[in-house]
Amino acid sequence: METRDSKKPTRELYKYKIPTILLVCFLSIMHALEFGSMGQVSASIGNAGVALKNSAWAVYYNPALLGADRRSKIAYSFGAQFQETNILEVATLDFKTLANSSEILGNKLMGKDTKGLTKAVLNANINVGSLGSLGDIFTQMGIKNNNGTITDNDLKNWVKQDLGCQNCDNNNASVSEVVKNLQQDSDALNKFQQKLTTAADSVGNPLISSIIKNTDPKALVGLVAGVADGNTDPAKLTQEILKIAGESGIVLAKGADPDIDNIINAFNALNKTIQKNDLMLTSQNGIVFQIGGREPTKRIEVDNIGAITLRDPDNGRGAIAVGVFAQAFAGASANISKTHNRLIIGVGCDMKDSSSYDQCNFIEAKINADNITLSFIGTPNQQPPQQNQVGKDTFLNHSVLSPNAKHELNATALALIEIPVGYGHTFFTNVGDISAGLNFKFIRAFGYTFKEEINYAKSQITMPKIDDIISTQTFGVDLGILYTPIFAKRFNLGLVIKNLNTPVIKTNKNSIELNRQLRTGISYELSKSLTIALDYDLLPNDTLSTVNPQSQMLGGGILINLKYIDFRVGAMKDLEIADNGVILTGGFNLLGFLDIALQYGLGNVVKLYGFPVSSYMALKVGGQFSW
């Protein structure tokens, strides 16, 4: 726990198979070397520690604290941090579901399970009972004869008589010709949509009602034409509707059906990942030994006649601290090709096998707020494979899943071993106590930078070899000050500059500069057992991420320090990274040796296998003692 009184010694204390491309292609470059955190106390109060006078991690946050609190201390901490942007959802996608989206949609339109679907159609006579929900809708609209079937003549007569299509009176015309004429008659089309809407509402199929209300009436004619052509296979029926819809497509809105919502969510997740993706992993671990200093004293002198004189105080000596910090940073991101960034999928084939593309129907998904528009890409009036050639070419030249796509994976990994040695000293003046501290730290770094071209068909990556990892030895300098005003002895104002000399770390491809970090902090001791603290990065810190190139933290919290246990709670916000939102922090210490801190972001929270998971999470475990 943190101490309360410096004069009293105190103990301190796969269900889904995921292609490698999803875990690699849609990932962003690593967590940068921003200010970070060490130890559980500061981590649980918004990473505030620059002015936390009794911190055991002065050698990390502000060496000036070594002059303000001169006790001996031992502390240890082990922690990990996870931060991502648009990775978790796409990592659980089942691409087979997307590839089978037309079949799923067809099953929903017909109100049938695939296994129980009646696919047999005798000539042009269609049994309405085999059409599920569509059959019920056609019955409500009056498209059937007394035998419960639909013939070509039934359809043509209904279009002419019930819809009043002016150009549909040729009895010798085929159903496809009648449909084409119907698409040119706006009044008949509007009447057709109204009848469909009324019938769908009567049947009680919210998915069909949603599609009807959000889709161009010309595309809706495909519901009739597809069935008239003998398509009671759900996938083929849906694809026929999409072909007739053309570029306008059909619109799927959220809320009509849970399975369709899953398809919409999958396309949405994939689209967001294409626009922006980022994954960052950090582990900061350390142990620190603080050798106590000597408290200030006042010298009293007595002369020969007994006069007593109070001389200037002896400032004593500040504490000395030595630490060993082992830190690892890793992450990756994909720069999606600007020419291959459209959501085009092949249905009815294996998208990884280009030899099967002639059997594919290609569908493009366009994202709009709470709905998606699915459109067929091809030449519907021709037969396969000519019909599919346009879709095939468009898929190969523009789809994010194309084997011709040249996406670039960027990854960086750093491992740092720091051994800081710090000293702090306090000067007692007429305006208050002024503490100054200095750290010299030896740095041994191992760095690796990775870039490789990848796509959906080529998901294998070249793993680094030991010889490719570059080792660097360098040093860093940190400087800090702490001010406690004479008029407010419980108030502390701190300032620290880390990496004053901007150390440089080499990797196999480039060099990384550890930029100077300038942070200020305040703390106020409301009582011996209650302290509040706040830290702020005065300047943004550079990071290694191409997606989030800078970080600037603001955070603080409250520490309640009792005899055998303490509780901490706080919050922080990265002013440069909006996706994380407010990050809640908290922790507790029991008897000094067991100390736990947690951080949980409220920005992006997604469900992973049914559990809510934040895009920012961190955990630290350790302990500390002082005497």
Task: Explain briefly what this protein structure is.
The protein is an alpha+beta fold and 627 residues long. The protein is 23% helix and 37% strand. Strand 23 and strand 24 (565-574) form a beta hairpin.
Q: Topology, pairings included?
A:
Blueprint: H1 20-24, E1 28-29, H2 40-43, H3 58-61, H4 65-68, E2 73-85, H5 88-91, H6 95-99, H7 101-110, E3 126-127, H8 133-141, E4 149-150, H9 152-161, H10 175-183, H11 186-203, H12 206-214, H13 217-228, H14 234-245, E5 250-253, H15 258-275, E6 278-291, E7 300-302, E8 308-310, E9 320-335, E10 344-347, E11 361-368, E12 371-377, H16 386-398, E13 407-429, E14 432-454, E15 470-485, E16 491-498, E17 504-506, E18 511-513, E19 517-527, E20 530-537, E21 541-542, E22 550-551, E23 553-561, E24 565-574, E25 582-590, E26 594-601, E27 605-608, E28 611-614, E29 616-626
Antiparallel strand pairs: 1-9, 2-6, 2-29, 3-4, 5-12, 6-9, 7-8, 9-13, 10-11, 11-12, 13-14, 14-15, 15-16, 16-19, 17-18, 19-20, 20-23, 21-22, 23-24, 24-25, 25-26, 26-29, 27-28
Report on this model:
Mean pLDDT is 78; it is low at 1-32 and 112-130. With 627 residues, the protein is of the alpha+beta class. The protein is elongated. 23% of the residues lie in helices and 37% in strands. The protein has two domains: 20-86 and 282-336 and 407-626, Porin (Beta Barrel); 118-232, no CATH class. The N and C termini lie close together (12 Å). The chain has a 14-stranded antiparallel beta barrel with strand order 2-6-9-13-14-15-16-19-20-23-24-25-26-29. A four-stranded antiparallel beta sheet has the order 5-12-11-10.
